[in-house]
Amino acid sequence: MKFVAPEQAPDTPELIENTPFWPDLNLADFRSVMRTDGTVTGPRLRQVVLTAISEVNAELFHFRTRQQQRGFSSLADVPAEKLAGQSQIVHHYRNAVWCWARAVLNERYQDYDATAAGVKRGEALEDATGDLWRDARWAISRVQDLPHSIVELI
């Protein structure tokens, strides 16, 4: 039996240009932060991240419109506390996109291994995927300075 290691991820940054209000995102940053190796091809990763950007931007459409009406031309211009020299809101936006994209990848790249170890890994990915969807929702709420959940009695 021959072992084939996953392809190494490219080290060169690949910037995805976002719409003017939202920050551009780097696929190399995604691979590093979300621990994604070369088994996810560059074109597949780009497609998933583009879709995640589109979905998060749609979720934040009204927020963006309000901020632009207030005179802010980009997310980085919206007043916010800074962490490591960067706006917290930008951090939450990036986290929303990364978690959304990683959750989609987890759902699509379940292990094909039918052994007990493969089944166990698939179950672990399901748990992680749920956490990623939650984290994406929370990050979208944080961009808007909203609570994590809204509970209403019916």
Q: Descriptors for this entry?
A:
154 residues; mainly alpha
Helices and strands, in order, run as EEHHHEEHH
What fraction strand?
5-15%
Task: Quickly give the structural class.
Answer: mainly alpha
Query: How many H/I helical runs?
Result: 5
Backbone CA Rg: 18 Å
Placed side by side, the strands forming the largest sheet appear as 1-2
Describe this structure in words.
By secondary structure, the chain is mainly alpha-helical. It is 54% helix and 5% strand. It contains five helices and four strands. The chain has a two-stranded antiparallel ribbon. The protein has a two-stranded antiparallel ribbon with strand order 3-4. A hairpin with a 2-residue loop joins strand 3 (82-83) and strand 4. Helix 2 packs across helix 4 (88-108) and helix 4 runs antiparallel to helix 5. The longest helix has 28 residues, at 116-143. The N and C termini lie far apart (60 Å). Residues 112-119 have low confidence and may be disordered.
How would you summarize the topology of this molecule?
Layout: E1 15-16, E2 25-26, H1 27-33, H2 42-59, H3 61-69, E3 82-83, E4 86-87, H4 88-108, H5 116-143
Antiparallel strand pairs: 1-2, 3-4
